[in-house]
Amino acid sequence: MSRQMVRPGGRSAQVQASVHAAVHELASEFGRDALSVPLVAQRAGVTPSTIYRRWGDLQELLSDVAVERLRPETAPGDYGTLHSDLTAWVEQFLDEMSSPAGRAYIRDALLGNPDGSNAGQCSAYAAEQINVILTRATERGEKAPGVETIIDHVVAPLMYRILFRPAGLDAAYARRLVGSILGPAGP
User: Fold this and answer.
1) What distance in Å separates the CA atoms of residue 43 and residue 22, rounded to the nearest whole number?
2) What is the SS3 string spanning 71-134?
3) What is the chain's alpha carbon radius of gyration, rounded to the nearest angstrom?
4) Closest listed residue to residue 137, CA positions, set 65, 62, 82, 72
5) Which of 1, 39, 48, 135 sees the fewest Cβ atoms within 10 Å?
């Protein structure tokens, strides 16, 4: 069953916030594998039917929580050049996504969402961040590639390696990906 997860307001927002908080608390206390809809509902102060009605099942709930956790909290840093900005963002992206928590959130986002809308939302988060970096570079008069070029040549290889081939995945690899698009860093 596919559900569109929108940012609700009012009571709906309160329910979402309390259920998301319950998932985080319970996962921290007992581990992710111990989660169940009745347990989350009890902690959140809602009925299990509320969770089933809104999310469908536990995996869809975990997927929704993961997408929210993968949403960037701040704009990318401004370090004065496109190369510096993109490199810093890519290193932070790699650090967050390749952590055990990051990998778990990525898997949850994908597993509980067979229609792919959550994967699309996660991709949109990255594209928004990259767009900020590229717009800033263009405003400084720097020549910048397109968002999709960065997605295809930097983000996609990182995500593949994070999920399937993590050996040798480090900041140097991320910097090489940026260099393959932008050339070597300036002095």
Assistant:
1) 6
2) CCCCCCCCCCCHHHHHHHHHHHHHHHHHCHHHHHHHHHHHHCCCCCHHHHHHHHHHHHHHHHHH
3) 19
4) 82
5) 1
Question: Both tokens of residue 145?
Answer: 């590639």
User: What angle (nearest 5°) sits at the alpha carbon of residue 160, between those of residues 55 and 96?
Assistant: 65
Condensed to tens digits (0 to 9), the pLDDT of residues 90-142 reads: 999 999 999 888 888 888 888 877 777 878 888 899 999 999 999 999 999 99
- pLDDT at residue number 100: 85
pLDDT beneath 50: ranges in the chain: 1-7
| Alpha-carbon gap, residue 89 to 170, rounded angstroms | 14
E strand intervals along 33-187: none
Euclidean distance between CA atoms 130 and 89, whole angstroms: 8
Q: How far apart are CA 75 and CA 164, in angstroms?
A: 28
- Counted residue by residue, the chain has a size of 187
Domains defined for the chain, CATH in brackets: 10-56 (1.10.10.60), 72-182 (1.10.357.10)
Yes or no: say if 93 and 155 are a contact pair by the CB < 8 Å rule: yes
